[in-house]
Amino acid sequence: MSDNNLCTLGSQSVKLKNEVYINASASIVGKKEGEGPLGLLFDMVGEDDMFGCKTWEEAESSLQKDAVYMALGKAGKKPEDMRYIFAGDLLGQSIATSFGIMNYNIPLLGVYGACSTCGESLSLGAMAISGGFAEDVICVTSSHFASAEKEFRFPLGYGSQRPLSASWTVTGSGAFVLGKQRQDGAVARITGMTIGKIVDFGLKDSLNMGACMAPAAASTIASHFVDYESQPEDYDKIITGDLGSVGQRVLLDLLRDKGYDIADRHMDCGMEIYDAGSQDTHAGGSGCGCSAVTLSAYILKQLSEGNWKKVLFVPTGALLSKTSFNEGQTVPGIAHGVVLEGL
Amino acid sequence: MSDNNLCTLGSQSVKLKNEVYINASASIVGKKEGEGPLGLLFDMVGEDDMFGCKTWEEAESSLQKDAVYMALGKAGKKPEDMRYIFAGDLLGQSIATSFGIMNYNIPLLGVYGACSTCGESLSLGAMAISGGFAEDVICVTSSHFASAEKEFRFPLGYGSQRPLSASWTVTGSGAFVLGKQRQDGAVARITGMTIGKIVDFGLKDSLNMGACMAPAAASTIASHFVDYESQPEDYDKIITGDLGSVGQRVLLDLLRDKGYDIADRHMDCGMEIYDAGSQDTHAGGSGCGCSAVTLSAYILKQLSEGNWKKVLFVPTGALLSKTSFNEGQTVPGIAHGVVLEGL
Question: In angstroms, how far is the first alpha carbon of chain B from the final one?
Fold first, then answer.
């Protein structure tokens, strides 16, 4: 391949030569998410957060399994049609993924980017197709309120008080069938991406992850504008994953400092998925599942209906573990941007 | 891109149209690994396993930092020359990676495949270059005996007895600079890969990971032969990551059942890195670092010196977590195959 076949753009972006179709997607959420503002849009809502399983981790695995099943069904595809599955979650060693998707027998490329994993999986999935390594792939990510609280913070039984800056981990999973060929029912195109760097402003508060992640989101979004030689006005929406209301303020301020005002077109999945006032979710929703289910149920719907033409979708992740937290480390952030366009 | 530009092979393999060069690599290990049979080959050996840090996790992070630093130095490259870093480790939320590589400011694509992560990072890194998404990338993985025992099994202070089937997690990190262009000092080429599926034979013994991973290794190796229409004789060596002596026997038996005899050319990194008899390591070495440092120090040396022309390198991973283990789940395996050829 000669050099002019490179599809890199600026310092950290890619503009795909061969656009990739999102041929189908599916979302499954828990009871609380089903009661939120987007409740009616999800493909499936659980009656309780155990989903018929014995443990929270198994329940989260069942979310991935169901999301993949529904997305494949909508695309009219079988597991064996998928060349790879790009999958991940928040739990140690990504066990929600391992036990959720193993029976599909799809070659697995496991990814980890904390709550930015949905953006990473879509980026790598689109590269795999656009680069000629696959015709069809599936991407899936998940989170679960109870498995995440156990993994990162306090046992739920303690009934710990949550500060107003805390977010509520979304119980949910979103799956996306990407293809080289546009199928009937395709909902959008992936046309490019901006791969994020780790950004660490030195914050150490695991109950204010919005502030920890906002600098990474600002970095990725600003780099995207520079690489693409674009402006906020070129996008109908600029959508972060789970900054919540505290992180949003930080993001808007940081981007203003860099000369970009995105206030009139910024949306945060974490602020859309719950009614913070009535649902007691404080700063907003978070987790690998938050951006994934909001993308599937709401964002792709707006794109497929033509209400939006082009959005920059930027899932945001906090690189936190209970071990690093207990050892006094900071909570660095990372965010990956994906350019989504209507058909 | 037209359909004939697809470089997929069979059901789970890729044959790269544009081969990718391993332009440099570096390895760093702990004291015990330095005392083993490969000790003189590693680029750096620590005087103790803390590497000047306060915690085991920080020590593991410093391994990744040093491996990347040395590999970039050998390649004559700066961090900003790297388009992406494909990185991962065994710890929850991949914290060895986050805190190890963040100061390089390279766009990060975090990967998780347990001890197969080295194979996954090389596969995705090579696809990114071959597909036109980068000119140069770096791949790094690590493990640390003490951080891994804490993450997966018993506190070291308990002095738990280890059965003979147990493996010893390698303290070490290996980094690989991949490039589209062959540089002076390049050591090998990546010409293809076979992406593995999760294989679960129902084993639940976290102290016999070789047996847990061997079925996945057998699956990937057999699929590779089918996809490539090749035979064991087409490779100078077929090299697994960390099956150890117990897993090796299982692998050879399973492959014989499938009609392949690889006994005369099989090598396992975990069996090479320690002298099991004198070093009390039982079944052998394991961990993300095991295959990575053995690849960098030993396998690539054989390829660059022309002693071997072509090998199939198959890092093996056990998809275990302490949570899933304590909840009674099995230990499924995964293995990714990478075809490495001399220059």
Answer: 29
The CB-side HSE value for B116 (13 A sphere, CA atoms) comes to 37
**Tokens found for residue A272:** 């859309």
Task: Say if residue B21 is exposed, middle or buried (CB neighbours under 10 Å; 0-12, 13-18, 19+).
Answer: buried
pTM: 0.98
Contact between residue B127 and residue B328 where contact means Cβ atoms under 8 Å apart = no
Flag if A58 and B109 touch (Cβ within 8 Å): no
Predicted pLDDT of residue A4: 56
Beta bridge partners of A182: none
CB B38 within 8 A of CB B67: no
Query: Are A331 and A206 within 8 A, CB to CB?
Result: yes
Cα distance between residue A273 and residue A40, in whole Å: 11
∠ CA A335-A336-A340, rounded to 5°: 135
Summarised one tens digit per residue, pLDDT across range A30-74 is 999 999 999 999 999 999 999 999 999 999 999 999 999 999 999
- Per CB-CB distance under 8 Å, the chain B contacts of A108 are 113, 195-198, 334
Name the token pair of A201. Answer: 């402003």
Kindly state the DSSP code that residue A35 receives in the 8-state scheme.
T
* The CA-based dihedral angle spanning residues B246, B248, B250, B253, taken in that order and rounded to the nearest 10 degrees: -140
CA distance to partner chain A, nearest, from residue B32 (Å): 25
C-alpha distances (whole Å) from A163 to each of A168, A282, B6, B183 are 11, 8, 52, 54
The radius of gyration computed from the CA coordinates of chain A, to the nearest angstrom, equals 18
For residues B298 and B33, is the Cβ–Cβ distance under 8 A? no
- Alpha-helix runs per DSSP H in A111-144: 117-130
Q: Is A19 on the interface with B (CB under 8 A)?
A: no
Complex ipTM? 0.97
β-bridge partners, A341? A189, A310
Inter-residue contact A295 to A118 (CB < 8 Å): yes
Chain B partners within 8 Å of A114 (Cβ): 93
- The minimum CA-CA distance between A278 and chain B, rounded to whole Å, is 32
pLDDT for the residue numbered B1: 39
Which amino acid is it at A263?
Answer: A
Which residues from A are below 8 Å from B319, CB to CB? 93-95, 98
Q: Which residue has the tokens 């753009």?
A: A9
Give me the residue label for tokens 């870093």: B85
Number of C-beta neighbours around residue B40 at 10 A: 9
For chain A, how long is the longest CA-to-CA vector?
60
At residue A59, φ and ψ (nearest 5 deg) are -60, -45
pLDDT tier at B196, thresholds 50, 70, 90: very high
- Kindly list the distances between the CA atom of residue A142 and the CA atoms of A146, A294, B79, in Å, as whole numbers in the listed order: 12, 12, 32
Q: Are A155 and A179 in contact (CB under 8 A)?
A: no
Please give the Cα distance from B139 to B134 (Å, whole number). Answer: 13
- Identify from B85, B98, B327 which residue to disrupt to test chain A contact, counting A C-beta atoms within 10 A and taking the largest count: B98
Mark residue B143 as left, alpha or beta (left: phi above 0; alpha: psi -120 to 50; beta: remaining): beta
